[in-house]
Amino acid sequence: MALPLPSSLSPSKVSAFKNCALAFRFSAIDRLPEPPSEPAMKGTTVHRALELLLADAPDQRTPDRGAAHLQTALDEMRSTPEWEELAPEESTAERFAADTATMLERYFAIEDPRRIEPVGLELMLESEIGGVTVRGIIDRLERDPDGSLVVTDYKTGRTPMQTQEQSRLGGVHFYAFLCNEHFGEIPSRIQLMYLGSEPQIISTTPTEQSVRGLRTRVGAIWSAVERACEHDDFRPKRSALCKWCSYQQFCPAFGGDPAEARALSLQLQAQGPQLDLDIPPLHADNPELQPDGR
Questions:
Q1: Is 80 strand, coil or helix?
Q2: Strand locations in the chain, DSSP E?
Q3: Largest CA distance in the chain
């Protein structure tokens, strides 16, 4: 029986499909809920604090102001269903706050936010490639002193090894494509700002050729998704990522049955519509293997 197509593609969904087609199905098509991830929640908290900080006037973007915004972000996180489900003990909650504060300190160590001229913060952009909607959330879009666009993507996981850098930068060409579609220009630079234990900035310069390449790759992946949906043929791919996958109970590689996942999906859909949130599978963002928990 054919499966419904996902409503859109994003950098995280493309990465998930390439990592494991079956995990992609469970997340993007069956849309099965996953347990909350502490690393992902830390990432969300730090992203929120930086969003609030960069919305301030330049001369107000101080470390003290950042700490105040972090407290706001922590208060917001503690009011979410994810926090309630995680139900951290007091010591865990204290460590959570301390870890996010350390990430914020690292941010100030590698960048002076007073020099940033934001065009957009947590900016959702979408367009179409070959009949499929592609979308991405840009953490920060700004103008360089020379007036060119720069995309910044915050990462709160472990900094990748040098051999992994190009693969980490692969998804950012989505942002170059979306900027070109919406603003009529390709960013002069796209940078990944790592705030983990080894803070640093990794950047790339997108080109017209890389944007064309993105179109080709997304078209090919979408065709593969269409074929997989038409034939209900999403196969598992064993890798180190399996260790963090929350779908093992439905995966045939671990003795599970994907039909049970589909039954659960239909049951959840019958309870009410689900929002199309761009949330990648938990294992796809494990901080030990991937750049971020976001």
A1: coil
A2: 118-129, 132-143, 149-155, 189-194, 200-204
A3: 59
Residue 153 β-bridge partners: 192
Q: Give the pair of three-digit tokens for residue 83.
A: 């926090």
Tell me which fold the domain 116-214 belongs to.
Lambda Exonuclease; Chain A (3.90.320)
Locate tokens 């919406």: which residue?
182
Closest Cα partner for 280 from 6, 18, 27?
27
Angstrom distance (rounded) from CA 150 to CA 58: 17
Domain boundaries, the chain: 11-31+224-285, 38-114, 116-214
**Cβ neighbours of residue 122 closer than 8 Å, sequence gap 6 or more:** 47, 51, 137, 138, 139
Could you tell me the mean pLDDT of each successive run of 10 residues in the chain, 294 residues long? 89 91 95 91 97 98 98 97 93 97 98 96 92 93 95 87 53 86 94 92 91 89 96 94 92 94 90 55 39 42
pTM to 2 decimals? 0.86
State the CB neighbour count (10 A cutoff) for residue 255: 8
